[in-house]
Design goal:
The chain is mainly alpha-helical. It has helices at about 5-40, 50-70, 80-105, 105-110, 115-125, 135-150, 160-185, 190-205, 220-245, 250-260, 260-275, 280-295. The chain is globular, with a radius of gyration of 20 Å. It starts with a helix and ends with a helix. It is a multi-pass membrane protein. Keywords: Membrane, Transmembrane, Transmembrane helix. It is found in: Membrane.
């Protein structure tokens, strides 16, 4: 009996390690989906630029603080890759989302960032030489149609600028993810070191935005503080570490296409928390996104 227990424990550990990336991914997409609800609430207490600077600072200092607390391996690894990922995934992505929120409707415009998986599929083919099958093409068509039904860009007010900024945010997020994947393929990489430095580098350009911030106009409350901690620490810092860890273990295009479930979850969470119930065309869009996820998983 005692000789079987170690074998059973080993089998259980192997099974757990095999399912760990999928369990982590499920938690990550749930956390990121709920962050849309959190951001929508906290944006009522601060201007978008102020909100962007605060949550970026919280996330960046959290990651770099953990790196410093570890006490070793502080010197940046592959500084060029760190700068590229930090500027694209953090600074440019955050700035584009903020401009989209300033110029257009916050809820629907922000969902347009989930054109990201389509950009990842194209960039992965070019930068990572990942295969692009017919199923991927079908998934792209179904997912894009679903997103268009959910977002309904033809109903957005304020012209093309909000759409363009949000789509650019998806492009910058995709570029950072693909560059991160490529960096991990070049050899061993310390995820915490890489994340900490790219977050700190992304914080530096935020100094240029300080004249446009209005810290004195913030409406402070426990809900605002908790919301900023959620967005900065969990959604930004912890979320980025988890995303980078997953990129090392799953194909970038597959991981990104499956993240299309996030806007579906966000719509449901917004309906429950904020009373924003989806229209029939949004429900159809969710079904199309689900079809795209199935297709990309079978590629």
């Amino acid at each position: 009996m005692s000789t079987l227990n170690p074998a059973r424990r080993l089998a259980a550990n192997l099974s757990a390690s095999r399912w760990l990336p999928y369990a982590l991914f499920a938690g990550l997409v749930t956390m990121w989906a709920y962050n849309y609800v959190v951001m929508k609430v906290t944006l009522q207490a601060a201007t978008p630029i102020t909100h962007l600077i605060i949550r970026t600072a919280i996330g960046s200092l959290t990651l770099f603080g953990v790196l410093l607390a570890r006490g070793h391996g502080i010197r940046p690894q592959r500084l060029r890759d760190v700068c590229q990922v930090g500027l694209s995934s953090n600074f440019l992505y955050g700035l584009a989302v903020t401009l989209a929120l300033v110029a257009g409707a916050a809820g629907r415009t922000s969902v347009l960032v989930f054109t990201m998986p389509f950009w990842v599929a194209l960039l992965s083919r070019w930068l990572l030489a990942e295969p692009f099958s017919r199923n991927a093409l079908r998934a792209m068509a179904a997912g894009f149609a679903g997103l268009m039904l959910i977002v309904a860009p033809w109903q957005l007010h304020g012209g093309m600028l909000p759409m363009l900024c949000a789509v650019l945010a998806g492009l910058f997020w995709a570029l950072g993810s693909v560059l991160s994947k490529r960096a991990t393929q070049r050899g061993q990489l310390d995820s915490l070191n890489f994340s900490g430095w790219q977050a700190l580098i992304a914080l530096l350009p935020m100094l240029l935005l300080l004249p446009f911030a209005d810290f004195a106009g913030i409406h402070w409350s426990p809900a605002f503080v908790l919301g900023m901690v959620y967005s900065g620490v969990f959604s930004s810092a912890v979320g980025w570490l988890a995303w980078l860890w997953l990129l090392r273990r799953l194909p970038a295009s597959t991981l990104s296409f499956n993240s299309l479930v996030i806007p579906v979850l966000a719509v449901g969470m917004a309906a429950y928390s904020l009373g924003e119930w989806p229209r029939p065309d949004e429900l159809l869009g969710m079904l199309l996104i689900g079809a795209g996820i199935v297709l990309i998983a079978r590629r």
